[in-house]
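Hi V.,

You were right to ask for the full record rather than a summary. Here it is.
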Amino acid sequence: MPERAAEVRQRIRDLLLEQHGGDRFVSKVSDTESLRKAGMSSNALVSLLVAMEDAFGFEWDDDVDPGALRSIESLADHVVALRN
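Predicted structure:
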């Protein structure tokens, strides 16, 4: 399972790279850092969530725990949990 989470974290980073057109943000943010505190806008976060739906083949629940949206790590953990 740790390898799977690492793969999902890397795919999320790839999606961020595609959206931001460069790695300035992606290379600076750690897996556990709050994306909002790192400077990600609400619009960028929504775009990432939509891209994740397409990439991983799921839809976000309306009542998803906000903590799942906090960081690259929490996003990846959510995806891995959905697949189990």
